[in-house]
Amino acid sequence: MNLDLARWQFAVTTLYHFLFVPLTIGLSALVAGMQTVWVRRGDERYLRMTKFWGKLFLINFAMGVVTGIVQEFQFGMNWSEYSRFVGDIFGAPLAIEGLLAFFLESTFLGLWIFGWDKLPQKVHLACIWLVSIGTMLSAYFILAANSWMQHPVGYVVNEATGRAELTDFGAVLTNSTAVGAFLHTIAACFVTGGVFVLAISAWHLAKERHVDVMRPSIRIGLVVTLIAALGTVVTGDLQARLMTEQQPMKMAAAEALYETSAPASFSLFTIGTLDGSQELFSIRVPGVLSFMATGTFDGEVEGINDLQAAAERAHGPGDYRPMIPVTYWTFRLMIGFGLLAGLVAAAGLWFTRRRARGPVPRWFYRAALLTLVTPFAANSVGWIFTEMGRQPWLVFEVLRTADGVSPEVGTASVLTSLIVFTLLYGVLAVIDGLLMVRYAAEVPPPAPAAEGEDETAGVPSALATTYY
After folding, report:
1. Is-contact 255 289, C-beta < 8 A?
2. What is the mean pLDDT of residues 144-169?
3. What is the distance, to the nearest Å, from the Cα of residue 197 to the centroid of all Cα atoms in its chain?
4. Helix 176-206 and helix 121-150, axial crossing angle in degrees, nearest 10
């Protein structure tokens, strides 16, 4: 009971935090790009775009910081045995993330916020680019820590102390799993940022408001989304092959492949028993799974049953299968939501091309607004798949999840904190949603008035006072 509650609490805090992370990374780069265009070309539309999207970025960044701090508390609260066992390794990249990457982004974000009209243009522009670089560095160090759990390298287990000890920090940072996860995650972040800009721009354009700012914004969102969606396909293919090599059970569970096959087919739809122990009905495409896993259409992919038997021989009796229905469906939902975002972007680029014969269909704007949910859903189910597919291991083939939970924390304490965090995050979700909707609906800041003109004429007082 205690183990299940601890896992639920970590899932709630992690998934809620990860709603903000991809948007922070993707939107920071887009805002930096918009400001770059303004500095280089002097096009005032891009200054207005920078300040409009920058305001939404700041709200999201603040929420990400608050929820990220709470998430890290989980390691000491409910997972003290895990922290004791791997603290020497897991703590190193997290410490660097906090001391280097987070302070880099937070310091230069402060300079960017308060440096308008105080710093030289190019220095001010460099600040937002350093913020963007800082967010990506943060992502890399955190993913390096998580990837060590997926594919542990550069360590030894000290039998005297019963702890894992770091022997090669370079191996941890250059872990092939970390590199693959970083590339895939960054591509997903740009999909998230692109869809965010696309959806809100479409909302304004459907109402025929602020067309001068929202028309170039939607084109940026469309281009970024489509390119990044293609990037997730390429990097996802890389990750699938790494997963087959390093965690073959996760790959087999993702496809509900029970028997070793060569060639192996890709399941479009599978129905299995409630406990996930066997397949009852399936619709499959021949050879596709072999290509995903091995790069050839006739490659061999190990099945769940053979992998379970091998795990029992290596680690003793036990169930070494993840929850098959969860891994199977989250894998498909991740792919499906990502592809849907890419398809909407491709359609939008066609409708908004220069030689389009008519206006953009009204239904497309509605579809684009609804697409806002797709990257967040894909990111969430993708992380569920990544973490659930590793079970029953907390550190793959080194430490079981059941052995990492805090032994002295009672069920009542975990249940109470789970309820409190869930309710608190529910309140924060409402506040964040209201703030985002409010500021997304605002008029983009006006361009600076020419010398001698009344800068506040016809402008709401709040905007005349400050852009933020």
Report:
1. yes
2. 90
3. 17
4. 130
Q: Domain limits of the chain? A: 2-247+326-449, 254-321
Q: What is the dihedral of CA 52, 58, 63, 68, to 10 degrees?
A: 140
DSSP 1-29: -HHHHHHHHHHHHHHHHHTTHHHHHHHHH
Q: Tell me which H or E stretch contains 393.
A: strand 393-395
Residue 214 tokens, joined: 């929202």
Alpha-carbon gap, residue 405 to 4, rounded angstroms:
10
Rg (CA), the chain: 24
- The tokens for 135 are 């967010």
Q: Summarize pLDDT for 278-310 with one digit per residue, the tens.
A: 666 677 777 777 777 777 887 888 888 889 999
pTM for the model stands at 0.87
- Location of structure tokens 């609260």: 77
What would the pLDDT profile of 186-197 be if each residue is shown by its tens digit?
999 999 999 999
**Integer Cα distance of 100 and 408 in angstroms:** 33
**pLDDT value at residue 117:** 86
Task: Give dist(CA 64, CA 16) in Å, integer.
Answer: 9
| Cα dist from 327 to 249, 257, 261, whole Å | 11, 12, 19
Half-sphere exposure of 84 (CA within 13 A, CB side): 12
Contact indicator for 414, 6 with CB cutoff of 8 Å: yes
Q: Is 419 helix (H, G, I), strand (E, B) or coil?
A: helix
Which residue, among 161, 292, 163, 177, has the nearest Cα to 233 in the 3D structure? 292
CA–CA separation, 266 and 291 (whole Å): 9
| Dist. CA 111–CA 128, nearest whole Å | 9
**Cα 149 to the chain's mean position, in Å?**
18
Over residues 306-348, the pLDDT tens digits come to 899 999 999 999 999 999 889 988 998 999 999 999 999 999 8
Statement: residue 355 has pLDDT above 80: no
Distance of alpha carbon 228 from alpha carbon 368, whole angstroms = 16
Q: How many angstroms separate the CA atoms of 4 and 181, rounded?
A: 27
Q: What's the number of CA atoms in the CB half-sphere (13 Å) around residue 257?
A: 31
Cα–Cα distances in Å, from 248 out to 121, 221, 279? 52, 36, 18
> Which residue type, as a one-letter code, is found at position 233?
V
The three-point CA angle 168-14-169 to 5° equals 5
Largest distance between two CA atoms of the chain = 83
CB 301 within 8 A of CB 252: yes
Which range of 100-104, 255-259, 350-354, 388-392 scores highest in mean pLDDT? It is: 388-392
Give the separation between CA 447 and CA 153, rounded to whole angstroms: 53
Per-position b or e across 352-362, b if 16+ CB within 10 A of its CB: beeeeeeebee
* Number of H-type helices and E-type strands within the chain: 17, 6
